[in-house]
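Predict the 3D structure for this chain.
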Amino acid sequence: MLWSWRIRTAVPPSRLRPRGRRAGVWLAAFFIVGLLVGPGAAAPPPRPAGQLDPGEPGEVTTIVDGDTLMLADGREVRLVGIQAPKLPLGRAGFTPWPLAEEAKAQLSALTLGKTVTPGFGGRRGDRHGRVLAHLFDAEGRWIQGVLLEAGLARVYSFDDNRKLIAEMLDLERRARDARRGIWALDYYALRSAEQAGRWLG
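Done. Predicted structure below.
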């Protein structure tokens, strides 16, 4: 990350010349302190896989939609903590949400034909028999994180599966601020309680 020091002063330029070795020492000290407290000194990002219980890896064979996939051993995995734009998936009269196909394509590009490892931080299954897990690829890349940062999913968490919620909310906020993916569309705009009431009737 780049940043700059900007000094504003009313002192005439003739009085800003360094005066000997002492001035050089102070300028060097000032520069070093700036490096230590500047953005480059920020703590490294968290490694979310280390906060979860690892599951059995599997090869991805089918992408169901933007947040669900199938593994070669028959497990159906629902990416926990997020919701991608929805597809009909056999529901009569259901209109696909905007960017649903794009979210599915992104998940496919990230995982199809590759080995992923599930990570668990709460309830491990739902009433449909799907595995509820965070997913990581062979390089340790967090799949939920990639989708959230791209604006192709939003945070969708329940009280029995709150692990990594802070990290997910931060990634969603960044995508929303940058108006990436779904956040560039009015369809997904955040609504006030009053606005939501009008939508619901």
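Residues 10 and 172 are 44 Å apart (CA to CA).
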